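Here is one such protein, fold included:

. . .
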Amino acid sequence: MSDDETTLLTEAQRGDPAALERLVLQHQAWVRRLMARLAPMSVDPDDLAQEVFIVVLQHLDRFDAASGGFRAWVCAIARNISLRAWESARVRKAHWAPLVERAVQAAAGPAEPHHRAAADRVLRALNECLAELAPPSRELVSLRYHDQLACDAIARRLNRKPSSLRMALTRIRAVLRQCLGRKDVRHGDSAAFTAG
């Protein structure tokens, strides 16, 4: 660690606002790049980078230069935050996936009467969300959920790699989850798509 950085850290640990600002400005670009590599696709890396700096500033008084470099300390914080983000994304996906899968299948399939209000509301919201997708994304949704084609078959049809197609479908489902969330469609509404 350079003398300049040591001085800056000392001033920041004493609570000097200018030093704190310089510290963040000095490290924000690489922290943002790191979070872009570590973050789940569904999470904004800028949000995670901001969270890293919140933790860094909250615990700056605990940083001891004798125990290692500042950058390594920040990296450890970033890794912990990214691990929490992955766990949160996994839980969110498990929570929303059944609703999105069933709703997309119902909306992309042939029109059938739905007698329950929740199903109508979810389908209406999903149709609005599907309409907001770009045409290539709508085509993927239609091939996967209306035509019930496997990803490999869609990849052959569109001359794409199956892995890139699966990634595209994952992104589309994430966009649809966010859109449904904005329209106040809740996971419990998925009961409308259960059999019986």
Remarks:
- Confidence is low (pLDDT under 50) at residues 110-115, 188-196.
- The chain is about 75% helix and 0% strand.
